[in-house]
Write a structure and sequence with these properties.
heterotetramer, A: Rossmann fold, two-stranded antiparallel sheet, 11 helices, B: Rossmann fold, five-stranded mixed beta sheet, 12 helices, binds thiamine diphosphate, binds magnesium ion
Chain lengths: ~350, ~325, ~350, ~325
């Protein structure tokens, strides 16, 4: 989150613009390096369960996270390491959750991408695709009840998840209630191994917007500028009463579905097309062309980031594992209604 | 002035809306229309903006409620029929029921399910599905059998910090009447001795409580004294009260309108045999709906679910042992 | 079902055209009189459970049913008495199912609108809105496997049911598989009491078609001609490989949601608008103007229909009620795996 | 040549496709990719056009299968994880499970659910949800515990005229191996004595069969002979075999990886106490997962589900009575 962003300031001066880009780039790089680190830990057998990366989606994800303000709501999905960081999530929350640390926000109960801090507006995804959008709607509706105006909720989703009933019901619900929802579809060409031709039959998901009565923008998801502008504009429109906004970003997943997946099904033509452009590299080149970040500054930035991540990993690795005997094993908040395990009762 | 079970539900919602600004109601046709069963009659007028018509989107309805709860509201979701909640099943069991455990943030939502069979309603407007919700950790499942409980338990449901599946029986909506609303009530989690007895315990809930009492009356003509335990809440389940009753009677018959496999009746028997095996002097038995969808024709329907008659027959069987 | 219909014959001669209209009108009137009879039986307490009528939707529904051919598939919903009859369902199937007769196709197990004969292509709706569309898809996919080409599946639905996830998943699925599905949306302005403004936020549901990549037509649902042409064209396009087709018909429900509902929430302005036109009357006037049916012929037709319906009702009323002791109470086809009721086993 | 449980599932599908032109497979990533777990590896190549990638639409996936079944096909639907079948729950329990009863037209579909916990999979990729399906009339619910059963029961599932929920345990996918595929097998509906004993019966299914056998081995060191009944099918449930075992041992411990409330273990205890009460010389007990979602961290996960160790402890407790 930034104080100044494209959604608030119609015309930014050069310095403000540079600051935003530099900040965005920092989150992109932070996410990329963090993803690389998590992948390495996974390969080394240090992370149980799956590891899901956002490689290739950092520009889009960052643009969303950075354009939100304090008090806004964000429901990231599996490829939003960058957006989470930009929204304010700490590296440590990610590492701890991947490691299952009891000090992380999920306390070892849930893991990897299934993390968040709902009270701080960062929703912890459940795995069922499409299910988080209506939850964002609910928060936005609550704020309307509470007469808190001016907040926005953003939800991210892949093109594959648009095939779920949950996606449809929730987007429609937001449109009927005219909620300030920004729904960001990362069309990364594949859902796991399934190409989008097996997922929908329209030429672009942007075509869906008129059928819901919501605004829409299509962007090149590999281009940080385009993403920043689109996210800023959509968030601003939602914030000022324009109702739900859709963003459809075209890009390519530059990794496997998860780190277990070699993704040899990806069409090489797509990899060599403009969709396959690495947004982090592109952004770095853009910053260099603008003389906002030279090679040595970039190297320095990377070094700082590597240190930050190594420190977080080292800390999480020093932390004890969750202790099953210290666990309450209680799924309800109403302690007085908790029965305990039947087999642990008297016989 | 007398009130029906349905009116008690309406009154409880009115009071919840009045007393707590965090409460709102969301569901199909609940607004100006007052709901398919009129359980929210006039509430949209009395509480403008707080009783909201939803699209026909059960999944999103529940998701919306969870989001609002995260933000400190206390939503009541009305499903038009319990059967349709199955379209929103995932949001209930995976979103609402896991939130507190995963994040420490409570999820105080109440999902009202008009449930259970009525004559002529058929397979998709009659289901008793408390067991599939009770199977999941993280949910409270309530099944009031009386006008008073419908009122007090719904108020308590809204006040609880957990997702509550509130199973209100459609058969009781108009049939059941009380003189006035209660001032005090047993808390959620406590069963009630609906009728005292010493020869056999019938543990049951919701509409079946009345069939059981009817059966008990019939059997009292033969000199049998049947104790009827009204569970009130199927999750949590007040095993202590049931076991204490079985300690008095030595015999247990569990009656449920739902299907047998893994239902409330199976859960009770498992608990009572684990905790009070020595108290039983005959095999505990259960009586449930038949193992088919709920039939449409009244004759079939009457044979499909337990009735006072079949409860009495099962009880006699057990008493003979 | 007709041998000759708008979908097969690009140019019909005058006699053929007249025959189609007369036949269609007969189904519309049959449905209307049947609905009236069922309403009367309901009021007299002769039908348990609800009664749901198709008043005001006969033109649209008939157009769909009549335009389908033998071998096609039809998934009607609660307001499709007319389409069912036109597709070939007997009056007796309807009356028996409403009465719960053991001789009806549902044998008293299910009732009223929940009837059909799946092996004859008439699907028995379950109540959950939207759930039948993917079942139609499955039949169409099976036919593709079985190399049976040239059949079409039509499914009807209300505008309210477009808010279900099931609707979305199924229409999308049909589009991805390019199945010959014709999906007919009767936008009758209300879902039970809920006006469509609370159901979706686009100006017309026809806007949804491009987002699914399917064809679409919008029709005046009170106009038999328009409905026949649209249904014929959509079915023909689907039959010849054009993929799924959507029809959005604008009309008004001219009755309560069910016969228990007085529907005082309906906006009088709508009733007085062209949406509120009675399609049966309009069709009769159209036939009269064309000199295809004069007043005395119409009266004669109505009389025949009344007799047909009275006969069916009389027959169903003479039939015994289902006998619970003769019932098998078995929900699975595999008899050898049936356990019976646990309480009926040995003790 | 040795085969894993997962390979047996693949082989069964290959054989079903080969032997019966009515069979096809529909699911996310099942085509060229061969499925998330590779249960359909190479099948799209071997059987062109008959192994179809579906959109991420569980509701429509099941609806599609029901339609195809009406038309005489025998679809196999692969859910990517059992947990995601909950989004298609309505089509399974209300469309597929009611079709035969309502219309006399059978609904031969097989829904494959990769289910159960594995280390690090967390709350939404670990669920054991056989009980909620078994609760509904109209479904067959299978839970093979061995490579041989995975193969023969999947073949039988596809051949059966009813909707089958085929619960294949992810923990067994790679762990379990057999020398060859079976030529003959017990039919669906028959339980199997996985280990003979005389002191106590453990009734269990799926992955827990192996924990129970492990526990039985441990206890045999102390001179106890534990009989392990592998249910194979949880619906229908072979009560006779369990009761016969209890007749030999007098003691019953039911073990399930699912949550306790209304689970398979509760259903077994209800049946055995109703039908074989006199055979029991101690209260029947059950051991289940803890009453929370399935945790992510391996340490928590290992404590959440029953293990050989906790099974042995529960058995010892019961043997002491
Ligand atoms: C309802 C549901 N069905 C299936 C899955 C399994 N699943 C997890 S991610 C995924 C692919 C998602 O593709 P997409 O939405 O395009 O997002 P991407 O992974 O490409 O970012 C699938 C099928 C799921 N999580 N939820
Ligand atoms: C999933 C689901 N939710 C709720 C209902 C209850 N219900 C039955 S009909 C109806 C209104 C349907 O409106 P619409 O689709 O516009 O059809 P119409 O009645 O106007 O023909 C509702 C809410 C249902 N049948 N299914
Ligand atoms: Mg994708
Ligand atoms: Mg409507």
């Amino acid at each position: 989150m930034l104080q100044t962003a494209f959604d608030t300031e119609p015309s930014l001066d050069a310095k403000e613009e540079r600051d935003i880009y530099l900040s965005a780039f920092r989150f992109m790089l932070l996410a990329r390096v963090l993803d690389d680190k998590l992948a390495a830990l996974y390969r080394a057998g240090k992370i149980h369960g799956g590891v899901f990366l956002g490689r290739g989606q950092e520009a889009l994800s960052t643009a969303v996270g950075i354009s939100l303000r304090e008090g806004d709501v964000f429901a990231p999905l599996i490829r939003d390491a960058a957006g989470r960081l930009a929204f304010g999530e700490s590296v440590l929350d990610s590492v701890r959750t991947h490691m299952g640390s009891p000090h992380g926000p999920m306390r070892g109960r849930d893991g990897n991408v299934h993390r968040g801090r709902p009270r701080e507006g960062l929703l912890p995804m459940i795995s069922h695709l499409g299910a988080m959008i209506s939850v964002v709607n609910g928060i936005l509706l609550a704020r309307r009840f509470q007469k808190k105006s001016g907040t926005v909720g953003a939800a991210c989703i892949g093109e594959g998840a648009t095939s779920t009933g949950a996606f449809h019901e929730a987007l429609n619900q937001a449109a009927v209630e005219k909620l300030p929802l920004v729904l960001v579809i990362a069309d990364n060409q594949y859902a796991y191994s399934t190409p989008k031709s097996r997922q929908f039959a329209c030429d672009s998901l942007a075509r869906k917007a008129p059928g819901y009565g919501v605004g829409v923008q299509t962007v090149d998801g590999t281009d940080l500028s385009e993403c920043l502008k689109a996210a800023g504009a959509a968030i601003s429109r939602a914030r000022t009463g324009g109702g739900p906004q859709l963003i459809v970003a075209n890009l390519l997943r530059l990794c496997g579905h998860g780190e277990h997946d070699v993704a040899d099904y990806v069409d090489p033509k797509l990899m060599n097309s403009s969709l396959g452009r690495d947004c982090v590299k592109a952004a770095e080149e853009f910053l260099a062309r603008r003389h906002w970040l030279d090679a040595s500054q970039a190297a320095g930035l990377r070094e700082d980031i590597v240190h930050e991540i190594e420190a977080a990993v080292a800390q999480a690795q020093r932390e004890p594992a969750p202790d099953p005997f210290a666990e309450e094993w209680r799924a309800i908040a109403s302690e007085h209604l908790c029965e305990g395990q039947p087999e642990h009762r008297r016989i | 002035m007398s009130l029906t079970y349905l009116e008690a539900i309406r009154e409880a919602q009115a009071r919840a809306l009045r007393d707590d600004p965090r409460v709102f109601i969301y569901g199909q046709d609940v607004g100006a229309f007052g709901g398919a069963f009129k359980a929210t009659k006039n509430l949209a007028v009395e509480f403008p903006g707080r009783v909201i018509d939803s699209p026909i989107s059960e999944d999103a309805m529940v998701g919306m409620a969870v989001g609002a709860a995260i933000e400190g509201m206390r939503p009541i979701v009305e499903m038009q029929f319990a059967d349709f909640s199955l379209v929103g099943f995932n949001q209930i069991v995976n979103q609402a029921a896991t939130l507190y455990w995963r994040t420490n943030v409570p999820c105080p939502i109440t999902v009202r399910l008009p449930f259970g069979g009525t004559s002529g309603s058929g397979p998709f407007h009659s289901q008793s599905i408390e067991a599939i919700y009770a199977h999941y950790p993280g949910l409270i499942v309530l099944t009031p059998a009386t006008v008073e409980d419908a009122y007090s338990m719904l108020l308590e449901a809204v006040a609880l910090d957990d997702p509550v599946i509130f199973c209100e029986h459609k058969f009781l909506y108009y049939h059941l009447k009380a003189e006035k609303l209660p001032d005090e009530a047993l808390p959620v989690g406590k069963a009630r001795i609906a009728r005292e007895g010493r020869d056999l315990t019938i543990a049951t809930y919701s509409a079946m409580v009345h069939e059981a009492i009817e059966a008990a009356k019939e059997l009292s003509g033969d000199g049998w004294e049947i104790e009827v335990v009204d569970l009130r809440s199927v999750k949590p389940l007040d095993t202590d009260t049931i076991v204490a009753s079985v300690a008095r009677t030595g015999k247990l018959l569990c009656v449920g309108e739902a299907w047998p496999w893994g239902g409330v009746t199976a859960e009770i028997i498992s608990r009572v045999t684990a905790e009070g095996f020595g108290l039983l002097d005959a095999p505990p038995q259960r009586l449930n709906a038949k193992e088919t969808p709920v039939p449409y024709h009244p004759n079939l329907w009457a044979a499909h679910r337990p009735t006072a008659r079949s409860v009495a027959a099962a009880a006699r069987n057990l008493l003979r042992q």
